[in-house]
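Sample A.
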Amino acid sequence: MHEGARDLSWALVTALFIAIRWPVGVLRRLGTGDRVQLALTTLAAVIAISLIKHSSNTSCPWDLKEFGGVARYVSHWSWGVPDGGPGGCFPAGHASAAFAYAGGYFVLRRASARAAAIWLAVALVAGLVLGLAQQVRGAHYMSHTLWTAWICWTVGFAIELVFARFNPQPLKPAKPAHAGY
C-alpha cells in the first residue's frame, strides 16, 4: 500500500502526459488542451501537497511523545509553531497519490458525465483507502487525509478556472422547445 501505490500513481501521471499525444479510451473524446489540463492538474495537485508538506512543522502521530516519539501535539493550524519533532507530516502526501486525480473530474465532464463521475469516485475511494492505510500505521490523522482531498480538489478547480478563462469552450446551440406547433 505504500511504495506500490506511489509507483502506480507516477506511472499513471506519466501515462496521462503520453496520452496528450497518443490518447486512449475516453481521452480520445477530449481535445489536446483538455488532455494537457488533465495531466497538469494531476501533477500540480501532487506538487501543491508536497510544497505544503515540506513547509509544515506538524509531525506525524508516531512522532508524538504519547506514542514513543519526541514531539508534542501542536495543531496543524499553528503555522510556524514547532512541535519538537521532525515535522513535514501535514497534509497527507501518500493519499495525494490518488486524490491528485480528483481534478480530472472537471476535464472529463466535458466528454462524459459518467466517465467524470467514475473517475472522481475512484480517486476519492483510492485516496481514502491510502489515507486509512497511513492512519493505521500511525503516519497521519484523518484530518490530514481530508485536507489533502480538499487541497487536491481546489487545485483542480483553480486550474479549471484558468483553462476556462483562456480556452473557453464553444457554447452549444440551444435546442428548440417544440418545433411542431
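Sample B, a different protein:
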Amino acid sequence: MTIAELCILIACLLPIVCAWIAKQKGFGKPRHEGGFDNHNPRQWLANLQGLPARAHAAQMNSFEALPIFIAGVLVAERMQAAQGTIDALAVAFVATRLAYIGAYLADRANLRSLLWVLGMGCCIAMFFVG
C-alpha cells in the first residue's frame, strides 16, 4: 500500500470523526431530553446548533470531497506519475482537510474556505502529474 492509498483510508475516516463530534452531546441521553434520535437521525442532526452543527457540516463536506480525492490518487497512479509526488499531494490533501475541519469547528469561515481551495488544488493537481 502506498502512502497515497493510506491517505485515502484516512480521508474516508475523517467524516466518521466529524459525525462523532456532532453527535456526542446526544449520546447517553433519552430522546425526549434531546438525546440522539437514531429513529430519525437526519432530523435530529438538522436541529443542531453551534459546534455540533458545524461538525455535522464538516462531516458532509468531507464526504463530498472524497470522490475527487480518490479519483485523483487512482488516476495519478494509473498514469504512473512519480509516487513521491502523488504521496506528497495526498498527504497535503489530508493535512488541509484536518486543518479545514479544525477551522470549521472553530468557526473560522475565511480560513476554512482557503483550506478547502488548497485541498481541491491538491486533488486537481493529481490529474496532471503524469
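Observation for Sample B: The domain at 3-23+51-126 is CATH 1.20.120.550 (Four Helix Bundle (Hemerythrin (Met), subunit A)).
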